[in-house]
Amino acid sequence: MLANISQRFLQGLLVLFVLFTVTFFLIKALPGGPFKSAEKAIPEHIRAKIEAYYGLDQPVFIQYGRQLKNLVTGDPGVSLRLEGREVTEIISQGFPVSLRLGLVAMVFAILIGIPLGVIAAWKKNTLMDYSAMALAMIGICIPSFVIGPLLAEQFSRRLNLLPATGWDPLSPSSWLLPSLTLGLATAAYLSRLTRAGMLEILNQDYIRTARSKGVGSFRLLVVHCLRGGLIPAVAYIGPAFAAIISGSVVIESIFAMPGLGLHFIKSIEVGDSPVILGIVMLYGILIILANFATDLLGLWLNPRLRASR
Amino acid sequence: MSDVTVEKSSSLWKDAVHRLQRNRAAIVSLIALAIIIFACIVLPAIPGFLQDPNAQNLPNKNIGPSASHWFGTDHLGRDIFSRVLTGGRISIAVGLITTLVSVTIGVCWGAISGYVGGKTDSVMMRIVDILFALPFLIIVILLGKTLEPITASLTNFIVDSLNKTGAATETLNKTRAWVEPITTLVPLFIAIGTLSWLTVSRIVRAQVQSVAKQEFVEAARSLGLGHCRILFRHILPNTLGPIIVYTTLTIPSVMLLEATLSFLGLGVKPPYSSWGILIDEGANRMISNGWLLFFPTLFFSTTLFALNFLGDGLRDALDPKSAKD
Description:
Chain A is mainly alpha-helical and about 300 residues long. Chain A is built from 13 helices and no strands. Chain B is mainly α.
């Protein structure tokens, strides 16, 4: 187990290194540059001075080494776009917004997706099953940038229940619409996976045995089926988390939320490399941690995996 | 999919077609897809049938659906019916081309990895593991943005090479209108295509590994066939079922990705349209002019629905064991 964990840790470091390298050279290849925008033309000699100040005139490999060292020591530097602002400052302002959005969305996804899948499997080939799966298909096929505005229209403009845009850390009602929008697609995938997993378990011999011994249906479902039936859905939670992190970029731009996604898009437009790298690496670390947690959860749920290792 | 007559002894394929025919959702999806593809590919090619999708006509702006404008007009007086159909052509092209790129890479990677085995296999699969852990959309956005400058030169190259053949100016302009929306998307094809082959490669690898153990492969080898021939002529055709299923399911996810990127302003550039752009424009004005959001979403979501149902149906038809009884 310990060897396994350390191996995963090393692989995580390798992933982060690859991610850093790919991102760094992609940013360097971006057309234009932070001080070459068309709207504010800077005289050539001044631009050369600014670039020298930020070390952008040095050979690419020296810049690469410096950025890598900066990130390893935990200081990603200053933003090129927002003058004089530290990357750590930008991230510490935007990240709580994105994190809360993502976590609440994940909770929505699990609370909607898994019960829907369990019900669909339990009432297999009935109207309930078909409507649950049709609902899941809608969640997969209608993009979040259609569902978001429609929900906002319904709940904030017509019913005037929830705020349509903006972000207030103190009022949960302003998190509700964005998180729900973000979580729906994941909920849909989770419900399909849960249904498939539960159906497989429901066909097992031990379930027939339990049934014939007269175990009540609720107890059968919760005690006997759920643990095995959830394995495919749980294995998807890591990738789902990655999807939610990426999806938050879209949601933040729909609901005008001051999160990391908005910073990311704006920084890409101008090639603000310290901010892009900082955000990408943070996302990378989160995804690795989520995958690791998913693996541990899978091991706990599925004893067969433990034996084979 | 009935035209997949790869094998002469096609009992598997006949069975599959038969099973598919009994799946009502899949058949309805197939018909819906046929209609949408016909509307988006054939109708815009008929001269004079559609109005110019990019022609502005300000006196006629913001009219609801009517006899002269079936799907209404937008804030610049452009005909939404024409825009939805020509935009659909782009969305469908993105879906097909990108899926082709990604499935080709995935099949080759997975087949080689599964067939060669040993150290090569574990290195190739480690690479897949690493790529899997990257934040996908983020990298696609970055890669698409990086590759953007190549599009203009690509368009000019195509138009120039046509110019050398001495074509008329009118033909040149027409070609540009056809070519430009596609070339502006080349970065997306590359970005999405090079990063979305991972799942395919895993599936193909597992399939190849199990097929490679069977006797007929042994027989082929003892007859002295080369590795290449064994792999591509004998093993891969036996893994075609899962590949077809997965291809069908990749198209909608790629189309969704294109729409998302266009929504973020990183995909197709105005004045050209794709379903993603039309949905974005519609969402901004949905309260006053609901039809702007309704029709593009209708086409887009119907296509996605149909492809997903068809993919599910094909999985049940081609792989009875995994059928959801």
